[in-house]
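Figure-free illustration: sequence to structure, shown twice.
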Amino acid sequence: TFEFVTDGAFEGRSVLLRVDTAHTVNEIVTEVVENLPSTGARQVWLEMHYRNDIPFELWLLGTESGGGFEQAQPVFQFVPSANWNKIYFNLTEFLIVMQQPRHLLFFRVALRKNLSGQFEQLDGAVFLDNIRLIHF
């Protein structure tokens, strides 16, 4: 699950994803975005702010209109950052490869275990804000 928080937020409210030893994985997806440009003639960019004390992943999911076949493309793995950061991703090539009419952003955070089977850290938090898809 996720929550909207004002404490520690970038602007107003931010999305907060938490994990701990009782809940080791937290995954969320955005609402479906339909008909993004996928020929390469127009670029598609993702803009977002983030702050995190644990690594997390961003994936792009593509589905058919009926919701059947789904493709997943890893976009980026974030390393911990104590400060808020703004980042841009050019998603154009991902969309060209996927060739799907519907897309979602998928965020995944998980506690990792070391080679001894012990958790590398006991809890973690990821803050997300100002998530925007831009195409022109």
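We now fold a second protein in the same way, so the two outputs can be compared directly.
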Amino acid sequence: MQFLPPYLSYPNSVEDGETSDDDITYTVRLAYDLTPNMNVYAGVSTGFKATSWNLSRDARPFAADIPALTEAGLLVPNLVPGTRFAGPEESTVYELGVKAEYDSVAFNLAIFSQEIEGFQSNVFNGTGFNLANAGKQSVDGAEFDVTWAPLEGLRIAFAMTYLDPLYDEFEGAAGVDGPTDLSGTKPAGIPELSTNTNVTYNFQIGGGPMAYVRLEHVYEDEVQAIENVPAEIASREINMFNASAGVTFGNGMELNLWGRNLNEDEYIQQAFPSVAQAGSYSGYPNTPRTYGLTLKYNFE
């Protein structure tokens, strides 16, 4: 009837409770101006994330340390292996792109490929957190954004990101029914397509204060929220409209009226197995339609 696993004194004579990480990262980038208005570039960069520690009550020894703990007489009843930490991860990104800016139009395009060795996964299992290193996670993708100013004061912008993520190798991942092999599957929580479209108009009110109005649309296609919650229970698709309007007065006062999720879009932000309720799941819904009024004053 024990709710949480028995506590094993930590650090102990087998587990010293320490890690030591170091790495050298770099960025190399070449750029060339094709014309006075257009630049092309290519680059490669690396990144590093140090060891990630499990600080929850559910932190348990690695399976490889159980025999040594038993031999040292430290093993407590009913203790099963888990994770103390996830080792460091290293990433490499290759990117090609173009940037251009003209009188009324500007755009950027980037194509990239990223590989993460030892990707750190951290998944809530209902009573604690499972830390695990994937052998390799990769993602190929493209980003595009354009800004167009067809009239004075009017600005139309569009941004798009396409991602094709993959767990190239991930044995021992946290699954719906316990540890599983996610090798060859798509990581949860990463939409394939996401876009942002917005229109902003700035104008002057009768020769007096400056004002603006803005309308925004945010979209992310459907994706499983998290690996250890079935997609049919917790998937997420975002299709949301936001708007705002504001006035800036000459005396330093700013007035902004804003509304988010005007169309009452509903989706799950995060999900996880319910605590001590096998087969049940809980989640956090998104914020509903929200209005606000913001006042600012600039002292000079």
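Summary for the second example: The helical segments are 66-71.
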